[in-house]
Amino acid sequence: MPAALITSFLILLILSLQYPLSTTFPIGGDAAFYARRAQVALQFFDDPTASIQALKNSWYPLSLAIFSATNILPLDWPSRFTWSMVIAHVSVGICLALLLRRIGGWPSAALVMIIWAVTTTSINSNFEDGTLAQLISFSFLALFLERFTAGAKWSALLALIATPLTHPITGLALLVSLLVTTPALFSAWSSLTAPHKKQLLLICPINFLLLLLVLFTGKSVFSTSKYIIGVAKDPFINVLVSSYAPFVTLAPLGLLLLLRSAAPTTAKYIIAILFSLSVMLAGNDLLEIAVWTQRLLPLFIFFVSILASLSLSHIIQTVYKSNFSRVLFSLVIVAYFCTAAWISNSRVYRYYENPANYARLHPDELAAMYWLRDHLTKNSYITTSDKNRHTEWLPVITSLQWLAVSPDDESLINPTNDQIDSLTYRKQKYVAYFTQRENIPTPVLESPGRYPLVFSNQSVAVYHVPPYTYE
Q1: What pTM was computed for the model?
Q2: How far apart are CA 213 and CA 175, in angstroms?
């Protein structure tokens, strides 16, 4: 069994490392946002108010703090983000293995690492969207379930608190499920062991208080209701016909096996409720709601990985009687799914690495940012439109002050038309146009004496706006 666990871990590690070994820059629209917020959070000694506010106002303060801690690594912020995604994905696999070892034994623990490993791209959206906080939260969710199963009080409580602090969706799913499950948990009081009874008396009341805090104080989830306008980009049905479909079909059997197993009653109830909730959340497009399915789907994948590992382990041990046949069958299915995942990952990474697809920061845009970093003074301001999320990397790469405005803002057409109360008014100012998505305004092109061009390549043009031009 140690050999199987080591092999599974190596597969998890290799498929995760494929990301940094196949790409030269982070993918996912959220990557720059994490790096920018981490830079602000780290300015505690220079600007403690801004640092505290960055953590306080974040939807995932603990995840931001964890990512900010990577500042100790001798890497730039893009590389730190890529490696943070890898570490988070591997950590989830390890925490899942700890959970499955407790509720299903070592065979299930080995299998869950492999099932989770093959979800890096296409199946799961975390790598491609750059949703680092959600990945981090899954580790704490798995740790809570493992500690809850063990009947531990304080370590389970710490994991419970950490989960909503790392990501609101994961945290709310856990808190709501615990609340729904509480009556059933206490109805089984007479059959619980003493440690589990003490655990419930601590966890359930605090869970209720945490849920109230999350819902009605600070960053209330209801405050975002006005932004919920979209139709699902990737319908839930796509997962049911993907290469991950075999594991989805195994999940109901895994749930049945869990409910009939010798695992503690408390663990059975909470995992069953969480799985049911994840199905409804991820499949809300089938209910004609179609909201946030890309953000909700990873939670469903998380619980499918748990239940599929239980059912697959049971099938292998039941159908194949000899160790040789079990090992042979396991090798065949592992080789198939891992090879398919490697090929799928390669296709995805090649797509993002191809500059013609413009799926992430273009090499010319990165070159322009390096030029700005090396040639502008630290008190310079850079103004861009917010039409292109690639501009979010400007303050990360250059450490310069950056102001994003609407694409139709007058200050982009005539850079001296910024308001007197603007951050850039009469300052050492530069205007950058990312020409992959926008055109340089005619007034700027036709006024080289007023707005001198200081840098240009195929994707970026940067114009200086000297203070005297305001006269």
Answers
A1: 0.93
A2: 11
